C-alpha cells in the first residue's frame, strides 16, 4: 500500500463519517469474511422504553409479600439509578412517570452483575432486577409470568423481573427500535458475500425476533460480557475467518479489540471507541458497507 492512497482513503472515510484510526484496518477491511454485530445500541437504537408490566398483585391481590406499585417502582428507580446499563435508564424513566415527585431512596450494597442484572438494599429490603436465568439461579421462580414473557420476547422485547426479599414482584417488558438502515445495510453486506452474525447478552427469543426483522439467521445469544471476546476468537481460530466486530458498549470492548477489525458506534461508549480501529460516527450500519468499499477501492488503486 502506498502511503498516499491510504491517506486519501482515510480522508474519504472521514468525509463519510468513518474515522479510521490505523492504516492497517483500511487494508484489512476488504478481507472481512464474518461481521459480528452487537444487538442493543448497534442494530437497535439503544434507547429502550418500558412498554408493558405485569405485577404479582394482579395474580395474588392480597399477598403480604408484594409491594404496592408506587413502593415497588420507587425501589426499582433507586436501584437502577446506580446502573449504567441502557435498560436502567428505561426503568428509571418509567419509575419517574409512575410518580411525578419521586424521591429516590439511598441504595446500600449496590451490585451490578454483568449479563444478569442489579441488586441492592433499598429501604431495608433486598431488591433484585434482572433476567429469568439469574432469577432461576437465585431460586426465584418466575414461571407464573411465562406466557406473558414469551409473548413479549416474540415481539422483540427484553423482559426483566423484579424481586424484593426473595419474593417475585413483577415482570417488565422493555422495547428498543431497530435503526432505520440496519436491515438494508445487513442485506448489502450479505450480498457482498459476508456472513453477518448477531452477538448479544439478551435471551435467545428476543434476539431471534430482532434478527428476523433485519435478516440475520446466525444468532449467538445469552453470551455473557466476559465471553464475547472468546466468541470472536472462536470464529477466527476454529472457523479461520477474518472477523469484524461492531459494538457500542463497555461490554463489547474486549471483543472489539479481539476482532481483526473492531468498529465502534460513534454514539456509544468511549471505552468501545477506544478499543476499536474504526468509528462509525453516526452509528448507521451503512457505514460498515462504506468502510469495506473504501478498503476495496483503496487497495485496488495500489495493486
Ligand atoms: P446486551 O448484550 O444486550 O447489552 P447485557 O449482557 O448487558 O446485554 O445484559 C444481558 C441482560 O442482563 C439484559 O438483557 C437484562 O435482562 C439484564 N440486565 C443487565 N443489566 C441490567 C440492569 N441494570 N437492570 C435490569 N436488567 C439488567
Ligand atoms: Mg450494545
Summarize the structure in short.
This protein is of the alpha/beta class. The protein has helices at residues 3-15, 23-28, 39-43, 69-80, 86-98, 132-137, 146-154, 182-191, 204-214, 228-237, 253-258, 270-275, 286-302, and strands at 18-20, 34-38, 49-55, 107-113, 117-122, 125-130, 158-164, 167-175, 195-199, 218-220, 243-247, 261-265, 278-280.
Give a written overview of the molecule:
With 303 residues, the protein is an alpha/beta fold. The model has no long low-confidence stretch (mean pLDDT 95). The chain is 41% helix and 23% strand. The longest helix has 17 residues, at 286-302. It is elongated. A hairpin with a 2-residue loop joins strand 7 and strand 8. It contains 13 helices and 13 strands. The strands form two sheets. The protein has a seven-stranded mixed sheet with strand order 1-13-12-11-2-9-10, sandwiched between helices. A six-stranded antiparallel sheet has the order 3-8-7-6-5-4. The structure holds adenosine-5'-diphosphate and magnesium ion (MG).
Q: How many β-strand runs?
A: 13
Small-molecule binders here are: adenosine-5'-diphosphate, magnesium ion
Strand order of the largest sheet: 1-13-12-11-2-9-10
Distance between the termini: 8 Å
Overall SS class: alpha/beta
Series of secondary-structure elements, N-terminal to C-terminal: HEHEHEHHEEEHHEEHEHEHEHEHEH
Largest sheet: 7 strands, mixed
Q: Ranges with pLDDT <50 over ≥5 residues?
A: none
Rg value: 21 Å
Quick check: average pLDDT? Answer: 95
Morphology? elongated
Helix content range: 40-55%
Taken as a percent bin, the fraction of beta residues is 15-25%
Number of helices: 13
Amino acid at each position: 500500500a502506498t502511503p498516499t492512497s491510504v491517506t486519501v482513503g482515510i480522508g474519504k472515510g472521514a468525509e463519510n463519517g468513518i474515522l479510521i484510526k490505523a492504516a492497517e484496518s483500511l487494508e484489512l477491511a476488504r478481507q472481512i469474511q464474518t461481521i459480528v454485530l452487537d444487538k442493543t445500541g448497534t442494530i437497535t437504537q439503544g434507547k429502550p422504553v418500558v412498554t408493558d408490566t405485569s405485577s404479582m398483585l394482579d395474580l395474588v391481590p392480597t399477598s403480604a409479600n408484594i409491594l404496592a406499585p408506587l413502593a415497588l417502582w420507587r425501589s426499582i428507580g433507586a436501584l437502577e439509578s446506580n446502573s449504567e446499563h441502557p435498560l436502567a435508564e428505561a426503568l428509571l424513566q418509567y419509575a419517574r412517570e409512575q410518580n411525578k415527585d419521586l424521591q429516590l431512596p439511598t441504595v446500600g450494597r449496590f451490585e451490578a452483575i454483568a449479563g444478569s442484572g442489579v441488586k441492592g438494599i433499598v429501604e431495608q429490603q433486598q431488591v433484585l432486577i434482572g433476567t429469568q436465568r439469574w432469577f432461576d439461579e437465585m431460586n426465584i421462580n418466575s414461571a407464573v409470568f411465562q406466557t406473558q414473557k414469551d409473548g413479549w420476547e416474540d415481539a422483540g422485547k427484553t423482559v426483566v423481573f423484579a424481586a424484593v426479599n426473595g419474593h417475585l414482584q413483577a415482570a417488565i417488558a422493555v422495547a428498543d427500535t431497530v435503526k432505520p438502515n440496519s436491515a438494508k445495510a445487513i442485506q448489502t453486506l450479505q450480498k457482498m458475500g459476508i456472513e453477518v452474525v448477531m452477538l448479544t447478552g439478551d435471551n435467545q427469543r428476543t434476539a431471534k425476533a430482532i434478527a428476523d426483522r433485519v435478516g440475520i439467521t446466525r444468532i449467538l445469544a445469552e453470551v455473557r460480557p466476559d465471553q464475547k471476546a472468546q466468541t470472536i476468537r472462536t470464529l477466527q481460530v476454529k472457523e479461520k475467518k477474518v472477523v469484524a466486530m461492531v459494538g457500542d458498549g463497555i461490554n463489547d470492548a474486549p471483543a472489539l479489540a479481539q476482532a481483526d477489525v473492531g468498529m465502534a458506534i460513534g454514539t456509544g461508549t468511549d471505552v468501545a471507541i477506544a478499543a476499536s480501529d474504526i468509528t462509525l460516527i453516526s452509528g448507521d450500519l451503512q457505514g460498515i458497507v462504506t468502510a469495506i468499499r473504501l478498503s476495496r477501492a483503496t487497495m485496488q488503486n495500489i495493486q
